[in-house]
Specification:
By secondary structure, the chain is of the alpha+beta class. The chain has 6 helices and 17 strands. The radius of gyration is 18 Å and the shape is globular. The C terminus is likely disordered.
Length: 281
């Protein structure tokens, strides 16, 4: 097994390993350490049926039925008739279910069908952003909490929460902007372009300015890895340490992944109603 860095901020490609087979104890220890240190694992050229994908992803955390269809994996696509679809418009950086009491622990996507012109998913490291946070910006955000909101009352699929008015029935969670990762203790800057609505205790203009400054640091080029998908790619990532985004994928052909998620609770348990969120990454 060989680990090849994908960027300075995050990610390694795992070579010389077949994820359809059970890893040896040494291989598993290497994979888990790499997952904690780099937060994203890429394994190319895999040929998976759902049970094999679920068995491998389950090594990194408990699997859930996050589509509400009774299965531990589901197809996510820009083709609406495939499972729940998933949407095709631009999706800003986010951490899945940050607006609930238990964000998704980790995610995995397996590339099943890709457009001829190629397609990308962008990843940003909240852990690397925290570690490189400038002192003046840290002083402004340290000790503050952020309102993460899913404004379902707007009936919009592509939105940024801070640009919208929210009401009491919209799913919302107040979280520290800086906190320790629950598994590995690394500090994480947990503000997202999609769901961060406002910073508690600040006037609206001051909150908006601080969010803009945090996003400029968090989404700077040196903190981003752009993954160019190939058929058979399996990407497993830490949803707390990383955020992900995509551009518009409404043109150019089918873009379908089989998704597996890790969490403590199902989507149905976490939301007041079953909501199609549109996070196909």
């Amino acid at each position: 097994m060989e680990l090849i860095p994908l960027s300075a901020a995050l990610g390694v490609e795992v070579r010389g390993f077949d994820a359809t087979k059970a890893p040896t104890p040494d291989e598993l220890a290497t994979l888990l350490q790499a997952y904690d240190e780099h937060h994203l694992l890429l394994i190319r050229g895999q040929s998976f049926e759902p049970p094999a994908q679920e068995a491998f992803v389950g090594l990194f955390g408990p699997l859930i039925d996050d589509m509400g269809n009774g299965n531990r994996s589901a197809f996510i696509s820009n083709i609406e008739m495939i499972d729940g679809g998933g949407g095709s418009g631009m999706l800003p950086f986010h951490s899945d279910l940050s607006f609930t009491r238990s964000p998704v622990h980790g995610l995995a996507l397996y590339a099943v069908a890709l457009p001829e012109g190629g397609t990308e998913t962008l990843f940003a490291s909240s852990a690397h952003a925290a570690a490189t946070l400038p002192p003046d910006l840290r002083a402004r955000v340290e000790g503050r909490s952020v309102h993460h909101v899913l404004p379902v009352s707007t009936n919009l699929r592509e939105f940024k929460a801070r640009d919208l008015d929210v009401i009491g029935t919209d799913p919302e969670m107040l979280r520290p902007a800086l906190f320790e990762h629950p598994r590995n203790g690394q500090e994480v800057l947990y503000v997202t372009d999609l769901h961060a609505h406002s910073i508690e205790g600040l006037a609206r203009d001051e909150s908006a300015q601080l969010l803009d400054d945090l996003f400029a640091h968090l989404y700077a080029d040196e903190n981003i890895y752009v993954h160019h998908w190939q058929l058979g790619d399996l990407v497993v990532w830490d949803n707390v340490a990383l955020q992900h985004a995509r551009g518009d994928v409404s043109q150019g052909g089918e873009r379908t992944f089989r998704r597996t998620s890790m969490n403590e609770f199902s989507v149905i348990e976490l939301l007041p109603a079953l909501i199609t969120i549109g996070t196909d990454s």
